[in-house]
Design brief:
Elements (H helix, E strand, L loop, with lengths): L6 H16 L4 H7 L2 H17 L7 H25 L1 H4 L17 H23 L1 H25 L3 H9 L2 H10 L4 H24 L1 H6 L5 H5 L1 H19 L1 H4 L5 H23 L5 H26 L8
Helix pairs in contact: 3-4, 3-9, 3-16, 4-6, 4-7, 4-9, 6-7, 7-8, 7-9, 8-10, 9-10, 10-13, 10-16, 13-15, 15-16
Length: 316
């Protein structure tokens, strides 16, 4: 009898297979489906919202449990996005190695993870922070995880504009965690991220246009062409720059932030123009990368200005 086909060997293979199914999925895969880099940027914006909402120091309980709750809800929404988009992710070079697309995390495991992290984050925010912050996070979870991922992303080239509102809320989360109310200052911070989102994501969409076209996702460069999208990136960048002047114009921030906003905005404007009129094939990704640095630096500038050059104005 051929030893390769022996019953004993087949029994061993079955046992090994059963054991492999019981081995827990590596924690790194679960961390990956939470989109940790995106969540960290969100938490920076949340922190800035917290500190700008008060002239003093934020209580440690709010810093710890507020950011933990926001991170859990955001990670849950990101995991839901991985879960719902797994069939699309598997066909795109940028996303084909994601854990759910590669079946390293099953749909059941992913669904349980989404529920546990989302519910835990909501309970922490509701019980240890305040109901306003908890409900805002739930609304953002539904907006991004369900409305954007399931409907807007596949329905309209304006998906990123409309859906950007759901991803623009983190500084408001931080603001309401401190104040318990939705005020003008927090809404201005939301407006900045809302204006930032289209030029940020459209630059990436231009770089990945063939992938989006292949999976039939109606991103703006797919439906209207690259040049049309580049012009809109420039227009939205101008809108963004003007929006970033608002904290200074209403007395919410001081000269340090205003100078930084001008300098950072000039950099974003430069890359938008290079993208529009230049012939640099790397310009879309360079613009995309700069947009991330831009938002981080802008919110850090807000934070430094708030404490190094304090103002008496506080929106209420």
């Amino acid at each position: 009898m051929n030893p390769v086909n022996s019953p004993a060997l087949k029994s061993v293979e079955a046992i090994v297979s059963d054991i492999s199914l019981t081995i827990p999925t590596p924690w790194r895969d679960y961390l990956e489906i939470c989109k940790p880099r995106v969540v960290l940027l969100m938490l920076l914006c949340t922190l800035v919202g917290m500190f700008l909402a008060t002239t003093g120091m934020v209580a440690w309980q709010i810093l710890v449990f507020g950011n933990l709750g926001v991170a859990l809800v955001a990670g849950s929404a990101a995991a839901l996005n991985h879960l719902l988009d797994s069939s699309i992710d598997a066909r795109m070079a940028r996303t084909c190695n994601r854990p759910i697309a590669q079946d390293r995390i099953s749909n059941l495991q992913g669904g349980v993870f989404v529920a546990v992290t989302g519910i835990s984050g909501f309970v922490i925010l509701y019980g240890l922070i305040n109901p306003v912050t908890a409900w805002l996070n739930l609304a953002s979870w539904i907006g991004y995880g369900v409305i954007y991922t399931m409907f807007l992303k596949r329905a309209t080239p304006q998906n990123i504009v409309i859906g950007g509102l759901f991803g623009a809320a983190p500084p408001l989360f931080g603001w309401t965690a401190v104040t318990g109310s939705i005020d003008g200052g927090g809404l201005i911070l939301v407006l900045i991220i809302f204006a930032w989102t289209p030029p940020h994501f459209w630059a990436l969409a231009i770089d990945r246009i063939d992938e989006y076209r292949e999976v039939d996702i109606p991103m703006l460069p797919v439906t209207h062409g690259e040049q049309y999208t580049k012009m809109h990136i420039l227009l939205y960048t101008i809108i963004l720059i003007l929006t970033t002047f608002l904290p200074y114009l209403i007395g919410m921030s001081n000269l340090l932030y205003f100078i930084c906003a001008i300098a950072l905005g000039a950099g974003f404007l430069y890359w938008s123009v290079v993208l529009l009129v230049g012939h640099n094939r790397k310009a879309p990704m360079e613009t995309f990368r700069y947009s991330i640095v831009y938002l981080m630096a802008l919110f850090i500038a807000l934070l430094l200005d708030h404490y190094l050059m304090p103002v008496t104005y506080l929106v209420s």
